């Protein structure tokens, strides 16, 4: 390893005598690339997400081989841990078919294949031509340990780091708003009418009758909405739950 | 390690993701392919940062910092994207991006601007001129 590094300083490393790290990188890279190809070509949608786990985990191993340990564990935590789970939930919530779906690929897949192969050939040619003799020295102090990454992140990159937290908060709020806006506008308007009238006035008997009157009207406004579109049963369950919730309070009082 | 190995792997992964984005029909599979492309970029960033941290004297570790930022932005992107896909699926009943053609131009019925511009143009190119006008005014 030290001989390889010493020889690498003079840029005399050949591709025909790979080091152990290079062989490991090549093998894991083959697994990663194969899993990525299966991800974009399989006809079973859930299998695509599971092969994506293999591809992303292989990339984490590649980060480890490049001595970027912190990035590797972040990759495992964020991608393999949460993003794939989120994608599986998305597949489940959009009622993706289990098993082979014949229309997983679009009609222009051959044009897409041509574009991908052409860009791959161009990129690989350019990259190999440009970095054919460049050598990464992997010896010595790890270039991406937690200490090094933390020092760099909190000395030079503090302001973008904090801005990123604001972006994550905005994404969180945006995802919640996008997820509940389409169906919740009539219910939230009705509940916004119903809930302040309950506790704020002093006399409870006269104001509780409008909420009791608002509950069947909300039920009738939710009643036709599953009928034309044939909505999911979760919206029926949610509307029936929102209808059923005030009635025990009325019964308890 | 030669820098060509991670660079070539990154290029291949990026083009695999490119194929997936272009060829897939389900929107969630398109999001998976976008994740592949982002990971290819991350591998490039990490490899070049490891190279530069040993080759240069003083470095900011900008590649790894940008990789962390890319991972966080990708997580935000996948959350927003899945929320959009779920909203589309709830409204349209499908997550098929080939069927979401409301903003498509030409060769189908287009919006209310077609009846105003077909007085001078022939009927075959009326939709094309209407689309051009809509594009010019937009």
Summary tags:
heterodimer, A: 253 residues, mainly alpha, Four Helix Bundle (Hemerythrin (Met), subunit A), 75% helix, disordered N terminus, B: 138 residues, Helix Hairpins, 5 helices, 70% helix, elongated, disordered C terminus
Describe this structure in words.
The complex is a heterodimer of chains A (253) and B (138). Chain A has helices at residues 2-8, 20-41, 45-65, 69-93, 109-130, 146-155, 158-197, 204-222, 226-229, 233-244, 246-252. By secondary structure, chain A is an all-alpha fold. Chain A folds into two domains: 14-156, Up-down Bundle (Four Helix Bundle (Hemerythrin (Met), subunit A)); 167-224 and 232-246, no CATH class. In chain A, 23% of the residues are buried. Chain A is globular and about 50 Å long. The longest helix of chain A has 40 residues, at 158-197. Chain B has 138 residues and is mainly α. Chain B folds into two domains: 4-92, Orthogonal Bundle (Helix Hairpins); 106-138, no CATH class. Helices cover 70% and strands 0% of the residues of chain B. Chain B contains five helices and no strands. Chain B has helices at residues 4-23, 27-55, 62-92, 114-117, 126-137. In chain B, helix 1 runs antiparallel to helix 2 (27-55) and helix 2 (27-55) packs antiparallel against helix 3. The longest helix of chain B has 31 residues, at 62-92. Chain B is elongated. Chain B starts with a helix and ends with a helix. The model of chain B is unreliable at 110-138 (pLDDT under 50). At the A-B interface, helix 2, helix 3, helix 4, helix 5 and helix 6 of A face helix 1, helix 2 and helix 3 of B. Chain A: This is NADH-quinone oxidoreductase subunit J. Chain A: It catalyses: a quinone + NADH + 5 H(+)(in) = a quinol + NAD(+) + 4 H(+)(out). Chain A: Belongs to the complex I subunit 6 family. Chain A: One of its GO terms (cellular component) is plasma membrane. Chain A: Keywords: Cell membrane, Membrane, NAD, Quinone, Transmembrane, Transmembrane helix.
């Amino acid at each position: 390893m030290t001989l390889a590094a010493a020889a690498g300083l003079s840029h005399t490393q050949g591709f025909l005598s790979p080091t152990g790290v290079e062989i490991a990188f090549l093998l894991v890279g083959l697994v990663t690339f194969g899993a990525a190809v299966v991800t974009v070509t399989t006809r079973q949608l859930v299998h695509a997400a599971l092969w994506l786990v293999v591809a992303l985990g292989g990339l984490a191993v590649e980060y480890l081989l490049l001595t970027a340990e912190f990035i590797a564990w972040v990759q495992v935590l964020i991608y393999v841990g949460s993003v794939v789970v989120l994608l599986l939930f998305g597949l489940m919530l959009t009622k993706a078919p289990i098993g082979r779906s014949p229309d997983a690929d679009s009609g222009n897949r051959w044009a897409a294949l041509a574009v991908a192969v052409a860009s791959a050939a161009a990129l690989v040619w350019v990259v190999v031509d440009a970095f054919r003799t460049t050598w990464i020295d992997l010896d010595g102090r790890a270039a991406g340990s937690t200490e090094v990454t933390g020092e760099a992140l909190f000395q030079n990159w503090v302001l973008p780091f904090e801005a990123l937290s604001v972006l994550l908060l905005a994404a969180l709020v945006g995802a919640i708003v996008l997820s509940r806006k389409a169906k919740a506008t009539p219910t939230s308007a009705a509940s916004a009418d119903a809930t302040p009238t309950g506790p704020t006035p002093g006399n409870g008997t006269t104001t509780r009758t409008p909420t009791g009157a608002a509950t069947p009207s909300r039920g009738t406004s939710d009643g036709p909405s599953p009928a034309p579109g044939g909505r999911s049963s979760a919206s029926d369950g949610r509307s029936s739950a929102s209808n059923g919730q005030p009635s025990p309070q009325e019964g308890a009082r | 390690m030669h820098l060509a190995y991670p660079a070539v792997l990154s290029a291949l992964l990026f083009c695999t993701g490119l194929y997936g984005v272009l060829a897939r029909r389900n929107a969630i599979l398109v999001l998976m392919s976008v994740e592949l492309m982002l990971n290819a970029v991350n591998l490039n960033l990490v490899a070049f940062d490891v190279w530069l941290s040993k080759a240069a004297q003083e470095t900011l570790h900008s590649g790894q910092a940008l990789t962390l930022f890319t991972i966080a932005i990708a997580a935000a992107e996948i959350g927003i994207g899945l929320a959009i896909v779920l909203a589309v699926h709830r409204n349209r009943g499908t997550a098929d991006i080939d069927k979401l053609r409301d903003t498509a131009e030409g060769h189908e019925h287009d919006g209310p601007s077609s009846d105003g511009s077909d007085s001078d143009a022939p009927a075959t190119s009326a939709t094309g001129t209407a689309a051009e006008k809509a594009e010019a005014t937009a």
